[in-house]
Amino acid sequence: MIRSATRSRAIATFNIMRVIQNSKHELHAPPAEVENGAAIPCYESPARLTAIRSALESAGGYTFEEPPIAAEEAIATVHDPAYIAYIRETSAELRRARGSTAKAQWPTVFPYGPNPRATGNRALRGQFCFDTYTPLLGGTFAAALGGASAALRAAELLAAGTEQRVYVLTRPPGHHAERDRCGGYCYFNNSALAAERLAKLGKVAILDLDVHHGNGTQHIFYNRYDVLTVSIHGDPAGLYPFFSGYADETGTGPGLGFNVNLPLPPGTGPKEYRPALEKAIEAVSKLQPAFLVLAFGADTHEADPIGGFKLPTGFYREIGLQVRELKLPTAIVQEGGYSLESLGVCVANLLSELS
Q1: Quick check: is 213 catalytic?
Q2: pLDDT tens digit sequence for 38-77
Q3: Residue 166 neighbours by CB under 8 Å, 6+ apart
Q4: Which entry of 28, 176, 219, 233 is annotated as an active-site residue?
């Protein structure tokens, strides 16, 4: 009886997954996003994180903790210090706004010409952002820093060998953020930050399963051979971010061959997704990395309002099982997913196989 009880306690402990949560995420609550010149409700909202946490609490087997706040120097390992300063200073300026002064900023003019120069705030908005979906608010810097801190904490736990798999529960997402530009709701690239930290100890693979191509992650590691980026996403010929994610983008210089894009057509379901997932898993296995960063978006779900794929809720268990078979220390970083009804259970299904 003692032996059996001990075994039960061991199993229970093994099944618990640590969740590093961005406690500052609510400070960034965009009032709108601009689509085709019109302001519409923003899909990327604080309710996303609430939905995921509620689903995980209902499922059980998770502990939640807040990370220590990372220094800006840690963020500067993948982002331009001038860009970081711009996000910080503009957020501070917007926090001080009173009366009729605007409390959110969107870019309206973007760089053009052979040698564009930006010398004022209105110009810098376009220099440091590439779309109209990604406004700056008074709480944007704190929320983005909170997500970056959570990703770095997860990487530290893996680097120390303390955990085999850690989930980063955060918003706003990160994989569209380039070295010096925000966009796609993203400000700091959480997945890239985790990978950069882990790359100090060995080769890293980033497997991006968001429905939108992670242009920022590709941009940051495109000429690197120590960080493999593999992405399964909707065909950019018709889906955001439009200008990256094509199959012939394979890296440059030392990184040639270390960037793998697997674009899929609208309406992709499990039958079409499985072969792509097999190719992605094979590419990761071939590298024999020391660590894996899984950039996970549930916007591949059939109910997602801006995705276009047709993956059913139960399929995320299958994805989790395939990733688990890699047997790699893994940081799972939350990216997209905008159906509040399905988001939480998709995450819970994925993590149930990984834990």
Answers
A1: no
A2: 999 999 999 999 999 999 999 999 999 999 999 999 999 9
A3: 17, 18, 19, 20, 154, 157, 158, 330, 331, 332
A4: 176
